[in-house]
Design a protein that fits this description.
The chain is of the alpha/beta class. It is built from eleven helices and ten strands. Strands 6-7-8-3-9-10 form a six-stranded mixed sheet, sandwiched between helices. Strands 2-1-4-5 form a four-stranded antiparallel sheet, sandwiched between helices.
Length: about 260
């Protein structure tokens, strides 16, 4: 019988057929910044339609792992397979594949010299060669989905942090991604508007969007995840369905990290 990691690698490279193949597979990933080893031999996969949340203390490697998934950070070793192709391979057009991976950052990363609708249509027109009319129609649909259709012409400098993050989500969706990555999407927001952004993401979950979310919002992670991955000191210390991980974690570090949440619960 094949070992689990062999099976997953076969999935990733397409040898078991598309119905069983992960959309993304991270294999033996390592990443250091100088003498600091941030990721240490990390492997896991994401199946189509699956929602995975990455939790863990600050500095555990969560955001670095997420950024390695679309090569915003270049791994020192290992592979990132996306839709059966190794993003690290020399012959692979990384930019073309990256168009199918949406990214939402902590700090919004909007273009402050453009209004809301232009922020959403720039990439589809310039990268995907979408017509301006098609891009605008799709952007307006996505802005309506995040509750911002009336703000299409607004100056992004004049809207709230929560609205900016919702624009960032609409912008990512306008590229028609197969996978969405969220890097602590609420960490820069005031507490009273965190909920509005989380509800937008929860709506995407209901629509079947495949996503990986780095978050410190434990209630949200427990509510929307198919799997929760707890990272500690650059490794995956524990990964499980939320029902088990949040009620009976097996790893002592997971229990320690979740102690306050479990007590409150």
């Amino acid at each position: 019988m094949m070992k689990e990691n062999q099976i997953r690698k076969s999935h990733a490279t397409g040898r078991l057929g598309p119905e069983t193949r992960p959309i993304l597979y991270v294999e033996n990933l390592r990443k250091s910044f100088g003498s600091l080893e941030v990721l240490r031999d990390v492997s896991f996969d994401v199946m189509p339609g699956e929602v995975i949340t990455l939790i863990g203390p600050s500095g555990s490697g969560k955001s670095t792992l997420l950024r390695c998934m679309n090569l915003l950070e270049t791994p020192d070793d290992g592979h990132v397979w996306f839709k059966g192709k190794d993003l690290a391979a020399e012959h692979v057009n990384v930019n073309l594949l990256r168009e199918k991976i949406g990214m939402v950052f902590q700090g919004f990363n909007l273009f402050n010299n453009m209004n809301v609708i232009d922020n959403c249509t720039l990439a589809p027109v310039t990268l995907k060669k979408m017509s301006k009319d098609e891009a605008r129609e799709l952007a307006l649909k996505n802005l309506e989905a995040v509750g911002l259709a009336d703000f299409a012409q607004a100056d992004v400098n004049a809207i709230s942090g929560g609205q900016k993050q919702r624009v960032a989500i609409a912008r990512a969706l306008t590229m028609k991604p197969d996978l969405m990555l969220f890097d602590e999407p609420t960490s820069a927001l005031d507490p009273e508007i965190v909920g509005e952004v989380l509800e937008v993401i929860a709506d995407l979950v209901k629509q079947g969007m495949t996503m990986v979310v780095v978050t410190h919002e434990m209630d949200f992670a427990r509510r929307v995840s198919d799997r929760v991955v707890f990272m500690d000191q650059g490794v995956i210390a524990e990964a499980d369905v939320p029902e088990r991980l949040f009620t009976n974690p097996s790893n002592p570090r997971t229990r320690e990290f979740l102690a306050r949440y479990l007590t409150d619960d």
